[in-house]
Amino acid sequence: MDQTGSPPGGGDKLLEIRDLVVQFPSPNGLLTVVDHVSLSVGRNDIVCIVGESGSGKSVTMQAAVGLVQPKGGRVSGGSVKFEGQELVGMSSRQLNRIRGDSIGFIFQEPMTSLNPAYTVGDQIAEVVRRHRNVSRRDAWKRAVEVMDRVHIASAATRAGDYPHQFSGGMRQRVMIAMAIACDPKLLIADEPTTALDVTIQARILEVLEELQRESGMSVLFITHDLGVVAEIARSVVVMYGAQVVESAPVDELFRSPRHPYTAGLLEAMPQVALDRGHAPIAIPGVVAQAYAWPQGCRFHPRCTFCKPEVCADAPVPLMPDDHGFVRCARAAELRATLGQAATERSVPVMS
Amino acid sequence: MSATTMQSAAVALPPPSGFVKRFMRNRTAMISLIILLLITLVAIFAPYLAPHDPAKSSLRAIMKPPNATYLLGSDDLGRDVLSRLIFASRLSLIASVQAVVIALGLGLPLGLIAGYLGGWVDMVIMRLNDALMSFPALILAVVIVGMVGPSLTNAMTAIGLVYAPRVMRVVRGSTLSVRQEVYINAARATGCSDARIITRHVLPNVTGPLVVQATVLMGQALLAEAGLSFLGLGVQPPEASWGSILGAAFPFMQRSPVPTIAAGLVISITVLCFNLVGDGIRDSVGRMRRAGD
Fold this sequence. Notes:
The complex is a heterodimer of chains A (about 350) and B (about 290).
Chain A: E1 13-26, E2 29-42, E3 46-50, H1 57-64, E4 74-82, E5 85-86, H2 92-98, E6 103-106, H3 120-131, H4 136-149, H5 155-158, H6 168-180, E7 186-190, H7 198-215, E8 218-223, H8 226-232, E9 235-240, E10 243-249, H9 250-255, H10 260-267, H11 270-275, H12 308-311, E11 319-320, E12 325-326, H13 331-341
Chain B: H1 2-11, H2 16-25, H3 27-44, H4 46-49, H5 81-117, H6 119-133, H7 137-148, H8 152-179, H9 182-189, H10 194-230, H11 242-249, H12 257-292
Helix pairs in contact in B: 2-12, 3-5, 3-12, 5-6, 5-8, 5-10, 6-8, 7-8, 8-10, 9-10, 10-11, 10-12, 11-12
């Protein structure tokens, strides 16, 4: 079965994750926190991974570039191909050559992602010097240049400042500058706007979009905020319970979600709900723990459309449909219902 | 926030300036630091400051009380106590530094490795560490000196070895907390190797507690040296450290109390100053950390 998470787009894939399985040892035995996840990112593409906390979206991407092993996690299966090169099982020395160079990574917490002991200019220049054979002076110049590109005012002076002299939004800009310092082909942004307030959030998104437009790099954006998705994504991968439950181009996903979970997420969005004249509707219940996934469809205990005889026993495979992939045993039946609930819905615009 | 950010941006100099300022505002620590600097200067310029040759004895001046010629009196061999104390400051300080350097040299890398790698490496290092720490420091040093023979170098190596676990614990503890920081993971995401992360990203962030520990250890090493030399296990005659001067003067304390008291005071004051400076640094660094967060 072909399980490309995002719909085929040009065929030339920059990043291709197939059946990735990531496990962490725990007192409850080996926990599978990423369960056969497949997704792909084309060139000049913006893909969003959406999901609740604990859905495995961050771990998927950290595992893809070998960042879960130092935390005790292990990749127990699947493959991650970046420009045709297999990253799973690659030595850390080789991975170090790719990380920070052709793959940039931005973390969620801008307040703690920078080393308090060095000036931000030093930290950016360090990345440049590690991956490019340039002099200290040129690396510094490059640092100032990228700080300027992410619109940090008077970058030349600010490069000599320490992280604590920056506000949260500015630190996130520094992190972005660091991530793009070596002109990566892929930028993985792990909830880069979650810790920031809304106005700053919008600015950071603008910066990311602008950089993407100018450089043509691909962006893989991890978020739990569908507003952000609406803003920047071209295609979306929805994760629930360590699995991909739906993937589709962004317009299609907003117009006609095929998975009840995706539909639920949309109903819970204030923008969508207000458009339709009702209060946001929360999805009942909480995500199950990784050691206690429900039998059958992992979403079925919280699903309003669940039919126990169909949903509660056999695991549901991820199936291709007309605009992407969906993991729902009743997808075909529900198509009309979910689609109808969303007839007037278009991609909401974040205000 | 932005106003202060802009202001400090204009100054554009590192936080250590804040640290220095805070330290200087701490009067006790500053006075202690000045006393330590004076003692160091005395040690450096000992030949110019000492009124007499520290090794020259005079039969006419045995156990004299303080007078115009011998400001702190003379000892049982007729040597000037003040000059001896001045010259002994060299050995005492160098010996302490030696012990601390050994303690840091062993404790720092082991602590970093244990804290950063964790797992069984940490287990092995920590159990050895516990074993070494379960011995009383001075007694273990006495045993080591007893095995390899008394000399100042041996004594201080032993002291350094005994203090290494303390350094290691401090470093490991700080490393454990630094390791959890997002910027370590971020460094990994930019392609840093483990070795590079340890030296460039972990080390600078454990120096605060490390400096405090090193300063306090200086005082303790000085005390330990004094103790070992007092017992005759450290510095060997004709050379003298404060401890050996104290040890030599002690039996005659009733007839001539000044040398004993003088040597004792010098040792106490120096140790006290080291501790107070250590406390001062700790407080200033602590505040820096909080301000930085």
